[in-house]
Design goal:
Number of strands of chain B: 12
Largest sheet of chain B: 6 strands, mixed, barrel
Order of helices and strands of chain B: HHEEEHEEHEHEHEEEHEHEHHHHH
Number of domains of chain A: 1
CATH topology of chain A: Rossmann fold
Structural class of chain B: alpha+beta
Radius of gyration of chain A: 18 Å
Helix content of chain A: 25-40%
CATH class of chain A: Alpha Beta
CATH architecture of chain A: 3-Layer(aba) Sandwich
Distance between the termini of chain A: 37 Å
Strand order of the largest sheet of chain B: 4-5-10-7-9-8
Shape of chain B: elongated
Number of helices of chain A: 8
Strand content of chain A: 25-35%
Largest sheet of chain A: 6 strands, mixed
Number of strands of chain A: 10
Largest interface: A-B, 27 and 23 residues
Order of helices and strands of chain A: HEEEHEEHEHHHEHEHEE
Strand order of the largest sheet of chain A: 6-7-8-3-9-10
Number of domains of chain B: 2
Oligomer: heterodimer
CATH superfamily of chain A: P-loop containing nucleotide triphosphate hydrolases
Distance between the termini of chain B: 32 Å
Strand content of chain B: 15-25%
Radius of gyration of chain B: 33 Å
Structural class of chain A: alpha/beta
Chain lengths: 253, 403
């Protein structure tokens, strides 16, 4: 990298990351904390998370319920703001941003895949995939082309004009993945993506993730199932709001 | 670009719930159509009164015989108003432009073997000009014909019809008034009833003819006095009163034995009453529009709750608060405007049904339509604001988890 002549804004942002952090880090958190007021009690969901995820990593975030993994996922997905600490996403200082900027970050940098798919029931597969581009302000012709391309990538070209209730669970999740990828996000953030699927379909979805990872996509998978997590190259185990273990793993055969 | 997309989304979610949207709109439809109809009715009534005022003629005062008062007690006999009084007014009135005396009584009138009892009015040749009535067929009698007591008659517009003859065909025909032959020389245009009398159903003959050949009396029913342009009617009244008191030799301090009426004032009062009534009805209609608006707000709140998850998804995918707010605001605005348009059509239809079937005067003014339409848009914005605000401020994480 030649910082003196760089004009690229992403590179410029990256240069402002903390000392000693690799310049290709997509996610950097420092002492990330999140506390909730539950009546008179204060619940500390996250108690100081230091996490760095570099470009083209495949990370599984694991932990039992109550470990804080959902809170961490919301934080990484810019759906929630930390009570304390810092978080850079692709160089953006997320903890400093306002509502509208967060909406923009979610739109550009993050592709969500949910356990319950979260497709709009009245919209066709194509329209669902178009949705992030609508909020990006892309003209409709380019949108349709890009959405068709994304559906093609997940193998759903022939189901483009079907509504979610006319699709199987696996197909719905593929639509959701196509929707997540269509704005070319920095990270694909999947929350128990196979939780509502049978084992055969789950395998197909995970195979799709592997394939996307091979193409260079950064993937963060939140799960509590070990055999799902084994598809990742790195496992981050949470317990009581702290990182318990952070281990590199070999791909399961 | 994004705005059009959001408008499209709002339309498609209305389309997805057609029955609900229709029922919601019903409140606005009823409200707007009620406003349009009521306003049409009251402006129709006002226009009718305005036409009556117009028909009376401009700057007109009417002098009629009153009762003489003796020691504060009304005497029984009506004091006369005579042709001499009318002549004195015409001669001495400084602010008086024209004087039209009217002698009037009901007589049997015969034409081609048909008999009718009609009001016969003896008057001067300037009757039409002052009263603002035009001749449609034939002509009015002249001053000379009045002076020479010619047996000429001009008919009100409804009289030929009463005798089953076309107004053009009755010109130059002879009618019998109290057994005496009169030549019909003209027919007036229709003026419509003026409440206490209908000039269309009267027969007009020269004053002198009436006085000497038919009535045998110089006692007038009424003298219409036209005040000069620029002079106030009040000043005109003072002028008339002075001349009349002198003519009738009324001592200072004694009561008048005649009445001076300002018919325009009377109608204006009537008009005010109509207007107050109209405003009252219109505000009741406006309340129903308000209730319709509350209905819209209610449904929008239900809709927001029902679509919590959709809102969560949209926000997760990058919709800003403003995007969400706009979507729901457009939805309620579309509901109200569509309801407003249908309400305008319905109100218009109701008004024309009323005027054709019941003969009521209605007038759908563009202003009323515009105001009702604008009001329904305002209702949509106002009552859509809170639900849209609620939708926009939903917590994304909770909305995504909402079942």
């Amino acid at each position: 990298m030649t910082p003196a002549t760089v004009t690229d804004s992403t590179a410029a942002r990256m240069a402002k990351l903390p000392e000693g952090v690799p310049r290709d880090s997509i996610i950097v958190t420092r002492n990330l904390r999140r506390a909730y007021e539950m009546g008179s009690e204060t619940v500390h969901a996250l108690r100081g998370i230091d996490l760095t995820i570099r470009r083209n990593e495949f990370v599984a975030i694991m932990g039992p319920s109550g470990s804080g993994k959902s809170t961490l996922m919301n934080m990484i997905g810019c759906l929630d703001s930390p009570t304390e600490g810092q978080y850079w996403l692709n160089g953006h200082p997320v903890w400093e941003l306002g509502d509208n900027e967060l909406a923009r970050i979610r739109n550009k940098e993050i592709g969500f895949v949910f356990q319950t798919f979260n497709l709009l029931p009245r919209a066709t597969a194509l329209q669902n995939v178009e949705l992030p581009m609508v909020y990006a302000g892309m003209p409709s012709k380019r949108r349709r082309e890009a959405a068709a391309g994304a559906l093609d990538r997940v193998g759903l070209t022939d189901r483009m004009h079907h509504r979610p209730n006319e699709l199987s669970g696996g197909q719905r999740q593929r639509v959701a993945i196509a929707r997540a990828l269509v704005n070319l996000p920095s990270i694909l953030l999947a929350d128990e993506p196979t939780g509502n699927l049978d084992s055969k379909t789950s395998a197909e979805i995970l195979e799709l993730f592997e394939h996307l990872f091979d193409e260079g996509q950064t993937i963060i998978l939140v799960t509590h199932e070990h055999d799902i997590a084994e598809h990742a190259r790195r496992q981050v185990h949470l317990l009581d709001g702290l990182i318990e273990r952070d281990i590199a793993t070999e791909k399961a055969t | 670009m994004l705005i059009f997309e959001i408008i499209k989304v709002a339309f498609s979610s209305i389309r997805a719930n057609k029955l609900r949207a229709g029922l919601t709109m019903l409140g606005v439809i009823i409200g707007v159509s009620a406003v349009i109809t009521v306003v049409a009715l009251s402006s129709g009534a006002r226009k009718a009164v305005e036409e009556q005022i117009e028909a009376l003629g401009a700057n007109l005062l009417s002098v009629s015989p009153g009762q003489s008062f003796m020691g504060g007690r009304a005497s029984e006999s009506r004091v006369s108003l005579t042709v001499e009084d009318a002549e004195a007014l015409a001669r001495d009135g400084r602010l008086i432009a024209a004087v039209v005396p009217e002698i009037q009584r009901s007589f049997p009138v015969e034409y081609a073997g048909q008999n009718a009892s009609l009001n016969v009015v003896g008057t001067t040749s300037n009757y039409g000009a002052v009263r603002n009535v035009k001749i449609t067929y034939g002509r009015m009698f002249s001053i000379g014909e009045d002076e020479s007591r010619q047996r000429y008659a001009v008919l009100g517009a409804a009289v030929p019809t009463q005798f089953n003859v076309h107004p053009r065909a009755i010109i130059s025909q002879t009618i019998l008034i109290r057994g005496q032959p009169f030549e019909v020389i003209g027919v007036f245009e229709a003026k419509g009833s003026q409440g206490w009398s209908n000039p269309d159903e009267q027969v007009y003959i020269p004053l002198k003819t009436a006085q000497y050949r038919i009535f045998g009396s110089d006692r007038l029913r009424n003298v219409a006095v036209q005040i000069k342009e620029g002079a106030s009617l009040d000043a005109g009244m003072v002028d008339i009163e002075g001349i009349m008191r002198r003519e009738h030799k009324i001592r200072p301090g004694a009561e008048n034995d005649f009445q001076i009426r300002n018919s325009q004032e009377f109608l204006a009062t009537q008009q005010q009453t109509t207007e107050v009534f109209g405003v009252l009805l219109a505000s009741i209609a406006a309340v129903s529009l308000l209730v319709g608006g509350i209905g819209i707000m209610n449904i929008m709140l239900v809709s927001v709750t029902e679509r919590t998850r959709e809102i969560g998804i949209r926000k997760a995918l990058g919709a800003t608060r403003a995007n969400i707010m706009f979507q729901f605001l457009i939805e309620s605005l579309v509901l109200c405007l569509a309801g407003g348009a249908l309400g305008v059509a319905l109100g218009w239809g109701a008004s024309s049904v009323m005027s054709t079937n019941f003969g009521w005067n209605t007038l759908v003014s563009p202003t009323a339509v515009a105001v009702a339409f604008a009001f329904s848009a305002l209702v949509g914005l106002f009552f859509g604001l809170w639900p849209a605000q609620r939708a926009a401020s939903l917590n994304t994480i909770e909305a995504l988890r909402y079942e």
